[in-house]
Amino acid sequence: MSDEPLEPRNHHRASVAVLLSSGERFGPYFGGALARWTYEVYRCLTGQIEVEVFGFPTAPGDQYPLPHQTSGVWRACEVMARVPLLRRYEEELWLRALFSRLRSFDLIHIHNRPQWIPLLRRFGYKGYLLLHLQNDHLGHWKADMLDALAPQLQGVAVCSTYLRNTFATKSAAMAAKTRVVFNGVNTGIFHPREELREPRTIFFVGRFDPEKGVLQLVQAFAHVLQDHPDARLVIGGTTGFGTHKETQYVREVRSKASLLDSQHPGCVQFPGYIHHDNDLPACFQRATIFASPSLFQEPFGLVNAEAMACATPVVGSGRGGIPEVVGDTGVLANPEDTQEFASALSTLLAQPERRARLGRASMQRARSLFDWQVIGEVWAKFLGEVLSSSA
């Protein structure tokens, strides 16, 4: 990657403020995908730009090593977010508290909050605004709303073509400013270790809720056990970042898993929250197959790319951006048809040569498309385009 600084007009080196949502911490344990993307990409660009991240207070020992700022109004924002009549003003209060610092930056990179763009313009921000979407926040906007937003910003980044098509097809002005920039993988820690590979382990990790298809996966696994009675299903994850609640859904999943476990002792395991950097790579490296049974239109599905980087073939749903991530290096099946999903898992478990071939192809795909250095280069080019446009 070039070390040439990115320069706005009339400036030595571009300064960028990254806005996480007011509730996201900037660290690997309690932070989410937005915090990770911000750290991994901007650490690749520290020689080219000046960057500061603004988000929820994060303990120094838990924080990513990039400059980070917050605001003392976060406590008030937490209270307001829980009061229906005040909730609508919470984000405006957060931005107002930060604005005296934000106004000095050349560019503000806004994660997942399109409504912040007109607010910042109303406060008097004159610089470059870049909206970065990891979720479908614009799909419900009408064409005239999108057309009105387009002149207020200089660029829109989305994590998949699927996500782009949820709104860009309705507004030529927004489409012209929108680029697909994939999410990334740290291939330094997510890489194959075949000496750890287990012969019959299906692994899932993700948020423990209905849209992720955990219940359907357990139901499919019941059919897998008929063909592979020695198979094991490992379900990692909790209901929130580093926190877990025993919801009715969790209890239902555990109940069905317990029934299977009574017939095949130890066949289903729940390790709980898995530390992303310290423990997750080994989970992928041990797994025979990674299962991604999302029921909703997953905008990207980062865990699929991380599994691929470890040469672990993916059996996933063909929804949202998952097909863009997996390409032809995995298997797509309908998770709501548990027989179909089970068949995909069982067939791949029985085909070690095919698994090895898919694993090698998926690793190569991950390294060429999703390595953070690759994403950093794509992002630097996009920033250069934005900074050369009219603010």
Topology:
Blueprint: E1 15-19, H1 33-42, E2 50-54, E3 68-69, H2 74-81, H3 84-87, H4 90-102, E4 107-111, H5 116-123, E5 128-133, H6 143-149, E6 155-158, H7 161-165, H8 172-177, E7 178-180, E8 201-205, H9 214-227, E9 232-236, H10 248-263, E10 268-272, H11 280-286, E11 289-292, H12 302-309, E12 314-316, H13 322-326, E13 331-332, H14 338-349, H15 352-369, H16 372-387
Parallel strand pairs: 1-2, 1-4, 2-3, 4-5, 5-6, 6-7, 8-9, 8-11, 9-10, 11-12, 12-13
Structural commentary:
The chain has 391 residues and is α/β, with parallel strands linked by helices. It folds into two domains: 15-184 and 371-387, 3-Layer(aba) Sandwich (Rossmann fold), CATH 3.40.50; 194-369, Rossmann fold, CATH 3.40.50. Helix content is 40%, strand content 14%. The protein contains 16 helices and 13 strands. Strands 3-2-1-4-5-6-7 form a seven-stranded parallel beta sheet. The protein has a six-stranded parallel beta sheet with strand order 10-9-8-11-12-13, sandwiched between helices. α2 packs antiparallel against α4 (90-102), α9 runs parallel beside α10 and α12 packs across α15. The longest helix is centred in the last third of the chain and has 18 residues, at 352-369.
